[in-house]
Specification:
The protein is mostly helical. The chain has helices at about 5-15, 25-35, 40-50; strands at about 55, 60-65. The chain is built from three helices and two strands, in the order αααββ.
Length: about 80
């Protein structure tokens, strides 16, 4: 699919990389977000960014705030 905007094209590509989301659904998501209030989009992006603070470790979902060793470069998650 080609779009009139590179930004829309990139957003569709990112959404369609999610499991079960095709290009048509991804485009619907992007168009829906474009229609939203700027603050809603900012809140949505903040939540997505915050996902960087969550990791899977031996079947557990761990947030960085609850796992102080996370910041140690030498730490091996598989050891825990």
């Amino acid at each position: 699919m080609e779009f009139s905007s590179k930004l829309i094209e990139q957003a569709v590509a990112h959404f369609s990389s999610l499991p079960g989301v095709g290009k048509k659904s991804a485009l619907r998501y992007v168009l829906h977000l474009i229609k939203q209030d700027a603050q809603d989009i900012t809140n949505f992006s903040d939540v997505l960014k915050a996902l960087n603070d969550i990791k899977f470790c031996d079947g557990w979902v761990i947030e960085r705030v609850f796992f102080p060793l996370w910041s140690l470069k030498s730490h091996k998650y598989s050891v825990i």
